[in-house]
Structure formats: structure tokens, C-alpha cells
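Hi Q.,

Before the meeting this afternoon, I wanted you to have the adenosine-5'-monophosphate-propyl ester prediction in hand. No need to reply - just skim if you have a minute. The sequence and ligand are here:
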Amino acid sequence: MSDIYPVNPDIAAKAHADNEKYLEMYKQSVDNPEEFWGEHGKRIDWFKPYTKVKNSSFDGDVDIRWFEDGTTNVAYNCLDRHLEKRGDQVAIIWEGDDPSESENITYKDLHQRVNKLANAMKAQGVGKGDRVTLYMPMIPEAAVAMLACARIGAIHAIVFGGFSPDALADRIKGSGSKMVITADEGLRGGRKVPLKANADLAMDREGVESCIVVKRTGGDIDMKDGRDVWYDEVTAAASADCPAEEMNAEDPLFILYTSGSTGMPKGVQHCTGGYLVYAAMTHEYIFDYHEGDVYWCTADVGWVTGHSYIVYGPLANGATTLMFEGVPNYPTVSRFWEVCDKHKVNIFYTAPTAIRSLMREGKEPVEKCSLDTLRVLGSVGEPINPEAWNWYNEVVGKGNCPIVDTWWQTETGGILISPLPGATALKPGSATRPFFGVEPQLVDNDGNVLEGATDGNLCMTTSWPGMMRTCYGDHERFKQTYFSTYAGKYFTGDGARRDEDGYYWITGRVDDVINVSGHRMGTAEVESALVAHAKVAEAAVVGAPHDLKGQGIYVYVTLNAGEEPSDELKKELVKWVRQEIGPIASPDWLQWSPGLPKTRSGKIMRRILRKIAEDDFDALGDTSTLADPGVVDELIENRQNRQ
Ligand code: PRX
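Predicted structure with the ligand bound:
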């Protein structure tokens, strides 16, 4: 039996939903989605109201539409409609890497900044439907750039600042971006990140037409005549009046590249209307957001969490959202908690990997802060282990703050499975129950539907407004990746257990995707980076348990004939992967393997490699079908110590 933490009655009394209301709304949302979403779609302002609500099919060509004849604009909903009531309210609290730097930006101010940049972008020839790549640090201009794109109907494609020039170039190419918005340098944990220098390499490779550069550090960078302009200069010259483009509900809002089991990362494409309705509604209910709350999500805008729960959801709700440039342990390991006190944060949303690393530092760095404004805590990105959950609950939340363990994906646009603070009794490690309109299903490997308490592959049987609509420029890939494994269902790639109370426990990816510190990485991507090295003949990459990161990257490398393994070469290969993809893809362990376990037809048996990396030798299964069963013993003998 797992521990159960009942709902705190004080929280339930004030919350948007208690258990009874959750059950009633959930029932309505699945029994009558048209009526439910027809009503809740009105939480955003529409230029032309919709008359149709849901029109979606997971069969055949897979066609997903919500509110399809309505028109609106995301930036209008995040800014203009708040001006009358809350123009002087703080929209974004920005906390710099250096604790002495912070800034409060009101809705009025943000509106002006967005309009100016939008006009400056237009002057550079960017308009509706054009793609713009953002490669930004966590500074207010990142949110301004997102909203400026939304305002003029341009589609942003954000690339996390930790990706390499090549990875950036691939994404610029994939999205066909004509403009890049970046900064001279980023600043994280006191260290500079050479964003513009990286962007130069990528832009030169892809022949990008124009680039707007924010001055963040004042570092020495090259500005290319005719291509690069300073953000400050072009916005100073621009008018603060830029009408919001009328967008159809189904027009794309953004593309975000994410890793899959095979091939290049996919351009996950999200739309305007359904996405915003879903991001805003989940933000309000799941974090139990109330007027006046200060809300802080520690993610980076380079990931989907930053899109939906730093920028779009909170701003659509007229919230005060905190944007943090730095890292949890700089200048000290109390930084998160100091920021909570400094800005009187009520709702705090972070990743288990951050909690685990801070937990190592003991209670003192937390307890020296008051944290008395905190009311709700959130977790996202990977399963949260019960030890980390308990520490988060007791040491950070002082036992008074419900923890919402939110399960979702880049593809889902918003949270699908999560407790609601006033409604759901908690079990540490469980994401609990589906949000309104979400219909999870567990199936076995043959696609048979499993009922009751069981383990299985997690699918969704019907669409919700915030889900992705296609892979940018490749609808076939969208169909293949998500709807072909189990026909007529969206397959998440995750395994899950459903318990006797109907609670879901996510057990992790069942495909070749790994989750490193909550960042998603395709094993195939790391492999192709490795084999691109002149000395490498073959490589196989798997995930293995890592104390801090959740999963770490374990690689098996076969060198070309005549090459000798050495510690130096090991270092060189790790550095190579960092250069090819970015620091987030750094291998944690590297094993030289003269042979890899292959079937007689030459297919690498990853299952065996995964088990060896996990030290789970009893579960290797049948190895008799291998071309050379002897390689297994050799691999076991030379495995890397993961401690
Ligand atoms: O395996 C699940 C894990 O993260 C994957 C999605 O990664 P990404 O698209 O990068 O989005 C991360 C932020 C939404 C999922 O397939 N995951 C995410 N949240 C949880 C989780 N695993 C367990 N519990 C969670 N709360």
C-alpha cells in the first residue's frame, strides 16, 4: 500500500475545484465534450466566435480541429484584454542570474514592448505564417519575442540555448526560418553562453536573412552587415502600436523540436485557439491559480514547459509569472528559496532533478528561508521518486502545500494527468488522475485494452484542445509516430500502471527515448553523433538509472580497426557529442565494446544492452538468437561502474 495524503480541507474550500466538482466536471467533459469545451473555450476572447467545437479523428489521415471557425490572437489574449483591468499589474517578474538584478514588467509595459518588436519584425519582412527561430537566454525579451511572433501571426520555433550550432542549424533548416532572434551571450550560474557566436555558425550554414540581437552581457560579438541588427535599435525606432493579426483557431502558433525514437527531432506543431484554451485552463485548475498569486515555473522557454506554463497559460490568465535566468545552485544552494521569499512566490513548479540535487545539500539551505508564501508545489518532466517527493513535501512545503505531479509531453501542449490541489488525495510518485477531457487507456503490446488495476502502454483515445496537430511539414511522420502503433489511438511512448483507485503511475518511456534531468533525448541522435567521429565504427546508446539525473546516458562504442581505446579518446568522444548536439547530450558512461549483441540479421539487441547498463544480468532474456552469444559475457565483464 502506498501512502495517501488526503486533501487539505482549507485548500479545498478555496480551490477552483474540490473532489465533487472535479468528478462532476470530468464526467461532463468526457460525456459531452462539445458542451464542456464549448463553454470553457470562452475563457479566451475570440474576434469571431466559434460555432463548431470539436472535429477530430485519430483514424485514417488523423485530423484534429478545435473551435475551427473561430478567430483570435494569442498575444491579444495574453496582453490587450488585460490592459483595462490590470495594465499596472506586474505580468513578468524577471530575476537575473545575479541576485542583484531583477525587474518587474507590467502588462502595459509588456504590451508596448511586444508591439514594438512586432513592428520591427514586420519592417524586416516577417509576416503571418513565416517561421522565426528563437535562441534566447531566460530574459524578458524571450517572452517578448514569442508574443511578438504570435501578434503578427509568425510561427516561433524556440531552440534551447544549450544546443550546439549544428543542432540549431538543423532546426533552422527544418522550420525554414527566415529570421533568428538571439542575444549576444547568455548568463547562467555566472558563466557566459556564446549564443550569438553559435548562432553565427548556424546562420552562415543555413543562409538566414535577418537576425535581431539582444544585448545581454555586452560581450564582444560579430555583427554581420545587412543581416544582424540590435534589438534596442530596431525597437526604439518602431511604433508601439501594432494591431493583433486575426488568426484562425487552427493556425499554427509554434513549432518545437523534440526527440523521438528514430531520426531527426520532430517539429511538434501547436495551434492557436485550442492550445491557448487548454494551457490557460490547466494552469488555473492544476496550480489552483487565483487572482494576485505570484507563480514561478523554473523551466526554460526552450522547452514546452516554458511555453505553456511560463508564458502562454499564466499570461492568458492575467497572472504574475516569474522568469528566472539562473540555476538552482548559484550563487548558493539556497537560491530557489531566496527567490521565493524575495518575490513572495505562492505557486512553485520545478523538476525532480532539481529537487534531488538540492535535497543532497540538506535542510539548512531551505530552512534559513521562510517560504511562508508558498501554497502549491508542482513537479514535471520525469517520475518523482518518493524520497524526493517526501522531501519536497516536508522540507519545502512544510507539509502544508499540495504537490501536483504533472504528467505531460511536448506533444500534448499541456498537462494531461495531474492532481488538482483541492480535489485529489495524493500518493507520492503518482501523477494521479486525468484532467478534464483526457481519456487515458492502457493497452498491452498487442493493443488489447486492459481494464482495472494493471500495467500497460499509455494511450489516449480521443483528442483534447491543446494537443499537437502535426509534425511540421511531415504529416505522415505524425501519423506514423503517434497513431500507427495502436490504430486509432494516440500512443504516448510511456508505460504506466493504474492502481485500484484509478490513479496513474508513469513508469517511464517504453521506446528509445531517454529522459536526462527531465530533458528528452533520442538514443539514435547520440548514436549518430558518435558514429560521425572518424575513429568510431559503431555505437549503441541506452538510458541507465542515475542518482541525480533520473536517467543518464550510457554508450557502448566499437572503434574502427587499428584504433586503440584510451581515457583520452573517451574524453574526446564525450566532448565530440557535446559539440555535435550540446551539453545536455553528454554521455555519462562510455564502455569500449569490441562487439555488440546482434541478431543474425545484424540488428542490435538494445534490450540486452539496457539490462547490462542497469546491472540487471538476470533479466537478459534469451541470448541464444545472437550471432555471437559470447559478446554478452565480455560486455558484462567490462561494464562501467555507475556509482
Ligand atoms: O516520459 C514522460 C516524461 O517526460 C516525457 C515528455 O518529455 P517532454 O516532451 O520533454 O516534456 C517534458 C515536460 C512536459 C514523457 O513522455 N514525463 C513528463 N512529466 C512526467 C514524466 N514522467 C513521469 N512523471 C511526470 N510527471
